[in-house]
Structures are given as C-alpha cells and as structure tokens.
Amino acid sequence: MLSIALAGKPNAGKSTLYTAATMAEVDVANYPFTTIDANRGVSYVRTDCPCLERDERCTSENCRDGKRYVPIELLDVAGLVPGAHEGKGLGNQFLDELTNADVIVNVIDASGGTNAKGEPVELGEHDPLEDVDFVEEEMDLWLAGIVERNWESVERKSRSPDFDLDDVLADMLTGFGATPVDVATILRDLEYPDDPIQWEDEHREALARDVRRRTKPIVVAANKIDVAPAENVERLLELDKPVIPTTAEGELALRRAAEADLVDYDPGDAAFEITGDVSDAQREALEGLGEAIGQWDGTGVQAAFDHAVYELLEYVTVYPVEDASKWSDGSGNVLPDAFLLPEGSTPRDLAYAVHSDIGDGYLHAVDARSSREISDSYELEEGDVIKIVSTN
What we know:
Distance between the termini: 23 Å
Order of helices and strands: EHEEEHEHHHHHEHEHEEHHEEHHEEE
Number of helices: 13
Radius of gyration: 23 Å
Structural class: alpha/beta
Shape: flat
Number of strands: 14
C-alpha cells in the first residue's frame, strides 16, 4: 500500500489532519510534540470510478455514487523543529520515520499563528513562507549527514578492482527508499569526481538533495485557511511548487457532521449541503465554513492526497475483474477492487499486484471495455478495467 507521511513543525495541524483523514482518535493539543510516536492509519485518494460509464453504480463500499476512494497508508510524524537533522527535538527519530513514506505532505500553518518552533503567536505574526522549505531542508541535511558518516566505507570499497559507485551508493541509500535505477539516474545528471576520495561536502550534499527529491517528493498543505489572512494563502500559491490550501479543522468538522447526518458531504467535495436538524450556532458555524472552503474549492485535505499520488508520484488506478462483460469478480461484485500502480505499469505488473501466484501464472490480459486481448507491453491508464488470465 502506498504511504503518505504528514510532516511539518509542531502545532501546524498535522494530527488534526490525520484525524480528519482517518477518523481515528489521536492526541491533538495546542503545544509542541503532542505526537511522539508516529500514528499510522488508512486514508484514501479519490478518483472517478469506471462505474459512471454504466447504468448502475458498482457494489464497492469504497465507491460513493461514482466517487471512488482507493486506500493508502497515512503516517503522522511528530513535529520537526529547526536543527532536527542534528537531533534537536528528537529530530533524528522523526526524520527516520519519513523514510517509510513514498511521498510527503508538508503541513504548514498558513495563518502565521505559530512561530518557527511551533509555539502559538498572534495570527499573522509569523511568515508562513519561512516554513515552506523547512522540511525538505532538514531532510536534505539529515540525509547528507548519513552519506557523510558512511563515506569512509565508500572510499575503502573504491580500492577494489570491481568497484562500482552506482552499486555501492544504491546499497547505502536503499534504506531511504532509493532504488538502483534512482541512483543511476541521479549520478547521470550529477557532476562529481570519478574518485570517491576526491568528493567534497558539496558533492555529498548535492547527492543527498537529489535523492530526497526523487524518492520523497513533497506537496505543501497550507493549513488553517479558515482563519488565515487571504494574502498569506495567495503568496503561498505563487510559489513554484505544489501548494494546496487546506483546513484540517474544517474537514474534521464536516466528516463528523456527515456521520451525524447533518450535512451531505463526501471527502473531496468542493461544497456541502446542510441536511439535518442543526442549532442556530451549528448553522452559523457551518455556513462560515462553507464560505471559507468555497473560496478555495474545498477543504483541500483530499486534494493534497490526490495531488501527492496522482501528480507527484504519477500513479494510476486500475480495476482487475474476473468477468470482463459484467466487470465483476467471481461472486458478481462489480468493480470490487482498485489498485494504484506507477505510470508505465503493464498487465503483468497488475497481475503481481493482485497476487504473486497470479503474476507467476500470467498468460494474457483483456481490456474489459473492448473485450479485446491487450499486449503484454501495454501501459495501463487511469480507470482501466482489466481481466487477468492466469494459470493460477
């Protein structure tokens, strides 16, 4: 399962966002280091379900009238403080947690109501732009430190006649999520001395930075838009990087109201409708929230996850079925499963994603829309419905 990590300084709203996205109860408080051990839960990315092309909606519990929710793992890492790469605020422990993620959502306080250490200040007192690059800078320096500490081993191995820098660095960086292909690609574009003994700090830092960018892409969640000065959010959106305006508090309020049948709302909707019997105070609060999210096309929580998976990681959603004509499994359930796969994946990759035995016995695949057999080299696309034919 794909993993998204929530990172950022303390008190930016990570735990509230985690609670809203997973509906799991965690400690939420207005002081640094509310979270010590990372929280892990299941959330979802949202896409259009292929059942929209049929007369009836599918039977999956993860489909809400054609809005398909595909599970991902969500990791809530404790707040980072300046100097985290040096171990400040248990930073090494928290940074190490981020190595388990495929992509990172950097949650920042767009209201400017918390300082660099995550301590509450007056709204607008702190410039949120100062927090945008904070997480990636700490991660880059932390990884550069790991490379530096292990470089003596690289130099020692370089004396061997069969030394291969790509292989040695791949072994070193595997724990950070770098593959041999990642390392080879990075080194191809990096300027560095052929002899590892001649590498300087700048070379190792450049390597660490490029590895982090390739293996841990980051989307910024500009949180607390319901109380943030509009100019703060607008300045953040002008940055040359993905920034999604969000309100974790708003998302949590809407999900709880939806559970209580007070509003008609699905995660990722740009608006909601009050449908239940609410008090005057509840109506006023909901209407105020509606105005806030209306300005930014929703709470942004779902949008941040969707952007992370579908845009940054470039994944597609594919639906395996047993009956190509009915788009169902063996029990008649229509579109019961959805898999997230990297762009460029083939039908055989899908077979292995379903089960290793099905992959081992793979024969061919059928496009359920056309009922035609497709090439083994066919690159799967978003929304494909595929029948896998296997000996197992």
